[in-house]
Amino acid sequence: MHEPLTLYGWRSPVLERRRVKDKAQVTFVLPENTPEGPVSVVGDFTHWNPAAHPLEPRGDGTRAAEVSLPTNGSHSFRYPAADDYWFNDEATDHYDGTNSRIHT
Q1: What is the pTM of this model?
Q2: C-alpha–C-alpha distance, residues 95 and 49, integer Å
Q3: Would you state the pLDDT for residue 9?
Q4: Most CB atoms within 10 A, among 4, 26, 51, 66?
């Protein structure tokens, strides 16, 4: 069983946001090796498909995936990792029970 991400002693997940024309570019950022193994971001914007947005190393000790979302929306998301470990993002706008939520 995995512990919550904050107990690893690394920085918490980060959401980087910027507006590009009529879209919101959201970059989901995690430490490169915490948790270990592959991690992706899934949500209603990916139809919960773990293969849609894997987080890739950025060369600065983090890994990230950038997603283009409609502006003025609200989306549910989570991070699936190895061994069927799913977790939320502490930098999120709020939660809807099980999932993190982001407003664009």
Answers
A1: 0.82
A2: 20
A3: 44
A4: 26
Pairing of strands 62-70, 14-20: unpaired
* Distance, CA of 43 to CA of 91 (rounded, Å): 16
Closest CA to 100 of 5, 19, 11, 22: 5
pLDDT at 89 (0 to 100) = 85
- Type of residue numbered 6: T
d(CA 90, CA 86): 13
CB neighbour list of residue 18: distance below 8 Å, 6 or more residues apart: 24, 25
Q: Which two tokens stand for residue 66?
A: 């950038």
User: Rg (Cα) of the chain, in Å, rounded?
Assistant: 13
For 27, phi and psi rounded to 5 degrees? -110, 120
The single-letter DSSP state of residue 85 is E
